[in-house]
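WARN retry 2 of 3 for item q-0093 after timeout on previous attempt; input resubmitted unchanged.
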Amino acid sequence: MKLLVVGAGEMGRWFGEVVAAHVEEADVAFADTDPETAEAAASAVGGRAVSLSTDERFDAVCVAVPVSAAKSAIEAHAPKAEEALVDVTGQMTGPVDAMRSAGPERERVSLHPLFASANAPGNVAVVADQRGPTVDSMLNALETAGNLLVETTPEEHDEAMETVQAGTHAAVLSFALAAEEVPEGLTTPIFEELSAVAEQVTGNTPAVYAEIQETFGGADRVAEAARRLADADESEFAELYREASESAIAERETAETEAKRETEDGQKDDS
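OK item q-0093 returned
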């Protein structure tokens, strides 16, 4: 398979590495606005770097750029794909629409790895908009690499990311901004766990988190909830506490049900 990865950042490298390692006779090329970044990505997977303006044709083209650049990148590079289009941008509604318009005859799949590449493998959200042998080969490579593919719709994915990404990041960063220095020995387990999560979130690239906040709207709900708590009297606080507890229990039960289903599916596959 000849694959062009447009965007040699963290997620582009991750996808190129998976294909290079788990697709037979893979020929992976990287193109980036920074040629040195493309060269480094290619070197890491035994691939090659090409110019963004190349007129070479590929079996598949993967667009792994910031969400704000996804539509224009898909439009520019879709003609280079003979069989399949892939996006790994973090949003799905816009890129899927763009791939449909730019490559109506092509296989199409939108992917969102729900982890930093250093923590791979993990869950990968998948919208298989138009399946075929090339898309199936790439999805099989992701599974072979140990990832769990979670099929969804563009709308379901983007709505979930308002809570999973934008809301979560806003809550964690707000805690980090509001927290004051605490004397040694005066912490609690919950404080220490939140501090560890804040350290993990703040150890990455700010621009990535800024784009997530710009793309998804969950931060506003976090701010509103914090204001409700801050302004609540004792009885109002107790009611909000009960509401939060019920929400947490529902989330846990949903997660347990999903884990049980995945275990049962795995047992069926083994049999």
